[in-house]
Each structure stands twice: as structure tokens, then as C-alpha cells.
Design a protein that fits this description.
The protein has about 290 residues and is of the alpha/beta class. The protein has helices at about 10-20, 25-30, 35-50, 65-90, 105-110, 110-120, 140-145, 205-220, 230-240, 285-294, and strands at about 55, 60-65, 95-105, 125-130, 150, 160-170, 170-175, 185, 195-200, 225-230, 245-250, 260-265, 270-280. The protein has 3 domains: about 10-90, Arc Repressor Mutant, subunit A (Orthogonal Bundle); about 95-170 and about 275-294, D-Maltodextrin-Binding Protein, domain 2 (3-Layer(aba) Sandwich), CATH 3.40.190; about 170-270, Periplasmic binding protein-like II (D-Maltodextrin-Binding Protein, domain 2, 3-Layer(aba) Sandwich). The protein contains 10 helices and 13 strands. It has a 5-stranded mixed β-sheet with strand order 4-3-5-13-6. Strands 8-12-7-11 form a 4-stranded mixed β-sheet. Helix 1 (about 10-20) packs across helix 4 (about 65-90). The relative contact order is 0.14.
């Protein structure tokens, strides 16, 4: 009975050398080992397979039918192992694999496609899968390993996650195109005190909602919110229809809405961030992605 029922890769490597040379002495010299150990390794390979690979009745080694079958398959196996080694090493460097990216609705606008394109240009062997499912909070999807990293405007405080700021944006005032302020280059929050606001509900982004309320309070008023919506296209549509104005990240201007105008908000203290959120563990692929986003 063979001691090991699994073929050792070194035995395949040695076998290939003997099969190419059909001479144990020349094969040993080529492989850089002595002939007796080489013969012993071939005997162990034969014991593992339960067949004779060489006809040793002559002075030169000749392959048996089993030996010829193995000689035909061994190169592909060794090449596949070499490719596997290279793939694993590339994965350790974050240069190959599948990366599942969860995205929040507002994070998709404008900036994300360019970020993904830049990452793919640097890491062409990585497959990026975008996941905008909203059935579960992104933090929970991370914990369940349904996604590898999430790009969000905001996330609740969670244990076991790592958060990196990948973009810091100024804000725009989005107005109906016929609005008296539509032609302005900049606006201050104080100038918006009498305007009706269309906004995202507080639960969609509590910190930004509260920051905007506080900034308006510093300007001397509480914004009059007339409509709310959870998706940017809906908010932009209501603004274009003249229902009200809104304040949004500057990246929304990359996807202009007919009937809406964009004016920079003159308030350096009010900004919005894009966050990369991942599990608090070493993952070269995620780290490479986050570095590229930054």
C-alpha cells in the first residue's frame, strides 16, 4: 500500500524531467539532484499511483502506457499550479479577485462611475460588482459578508467596521431654472430664509440633516420644508417643477436635471462626505480599492 494517496507536486516535477530526458542520469543533472534520490522519488510516485511508469528492463528509461498518459497530463497540472500560485500572490496584493461594492443612492451620482473606472484601469484583473440592494442596512450586509465595502454618505456607529473618508464635497443650492437666484454664482444660506425647501427625510442622513438645520439656525431661521423624498431624482424633479429649492452635494451637477439650476453655496463650514465602510480586518483588495477612491 502506498504511504500517501495524494500525488506530490515535486514528484510530478521530477517525473516530467525524466519523461523529457528518458534517462535518469541526465534528468538528475537537469533537476539538480543525485540520481539515487531521483529514482527513489519515482518509485514513490509509482507506489502512490499503483502503476509502473517506466520500463526499467533496458539501459535507457522508456515510458509505459501509464507513463505516457501521465506525461501527457503532468505539464498542464504543473502549469495550473504555477498559475494558481501567481493568482494567490496577486490576490494578496489586492490585484485580482471579485470586489462587491455596496452603494447608497446619493453616492452613485456623478462621482462613483469615474472612481470605479479609475480603479478598473489600475486593477484590470479585479471584477467589481456594484450592489445597491436596500433590503438590509449596509452595515448588516457587511457583517453578513454580502458585500466587501460600502460607499455611503453616512452610516450609524457600528462595531467591527472601518470607515475612511474618500471624498469631501462642497454643497450646491439647486433651484428652479426660472428662480430669481438661478443666475447667481454663489448664494449664502441667509439669502434662502424665505424659500420653501425640498429635502431628504432626516432618517436618510441624520448628521447632514442636523448640520443643515443648525447652519440655517445660525443664519437666523428654520428652513420651511414643504416636501421630502428619499431618492435624488425625485427631489430634483420637484425642484425643477418649482415646488421648492434644495441643498445637495456638488456631485449632483454632473447629472444635470432639465429645469434646474445649480449655484454654489457660500458656507465653508457646511460640507458632505463620501465614506468607504468595510469590515475591520485585513483585506488587500478592499484596501487597494479604498486607496484608489481616495
Amino acid at each position: 500500500m502506498p504511504r500517501n494517496r495524494f500525488i506530490e507536486l515535486r514528484h510530478l516535477h521530477y517525473f516530467r524531467g525524466v519523461a523529457d530526458e528518458l534517462h535518469f542520469g541526465r534528468a538528475a543533472a537537469r533537476l539538480g539532484i543525485a540520481q539515487p534520490p531521483l529514482s527513489q522519488q519515482m518509485q514513490r510516485l509509482e507506489a502512490t499511483l499503483g502503476v509502473e511508469l517506466f520500463d526499467r528492463s533496458q539501459r535507457r528509461a522508456t515510458l509505459t502506457a501509464a507513463g505516457r498518459a501521465l506525461a501527457a497530463r503532468a505539464p498542464a497540472v504543473l502549469e495550473a499550479v504555477a498559475a494558481l500560485r501567481a493568482d494567490v500572490q496577486q490576490a494578496a496584493l489586492g490585484k485580482t479577485g471579485v470586489l462587491r461594492v455596496g452603494v447608497g443612492a446619493s453616492a452613485v451620482l456623478g462621482i462613483l462611475p469615474a472612481m470605479i473606472a479609475r480603479f478598473r484601469a489600475r486593477y484590470p484583473a479585479v471584477v467589481v460588482q456594484l450592489d445597491d440592494a436596500t433590503s438590509k442596512p449596509h452595515g448588516e450586509r457587511l457583517r453578513q459578508r454580502l458585500i466587501d465595502v460600502a460607499l455611503l454618505r453616512e452610516i450609524a456607529s457600528l462595531e467591527g467596521v472601518r470607515t475612511t473618508i474618500v471624498r469631501d464635497e462642497r454643497l450646491l443650492v439647486v433651484l428652479p431654472r426660472a428662480h430669481r437666484f438661478a443666475g447667481r454664482r454663489t448664494l449664502s444660506l441667509a439669502e434662502l430664509r424665505d424659500e420653501p425647501f425640498v429635502s431628504f427625510p432626516r432618517e436618510a442622513s441624520p448628521s447632514f440633516y442636523d448640520a443643515l438645520q443648525a447652519a440655517c439656525a445660525r443664519a437666523g431661521y428654520i428652513p420651511r420644508i414643504v416636501e421630502q423624498a428619499t431618492e435624488w431624482p425625485t427631489v430634483a424633479g420637484m425642484v425643477a417643477a418649482g415646488i421648492g429649492i434644495t441643498v445637495a452635494p456638488e456631485s449632483v451637477a454632473v447629472m444635470p436635471r432639465d429645469g434646474a439650476a445649480y449655484v454654489r453655496l457660500r458656507d465653508p463650514d457646511l460640507r458632505v462626505q463620501l465614506l468607504a465602510v468595510s469590515r475591520d480586518e485585513d483585506d488587500p483588495l478592499v484596501e487597494a480599492f479604498v486607496a484608489s477612491m481616495r
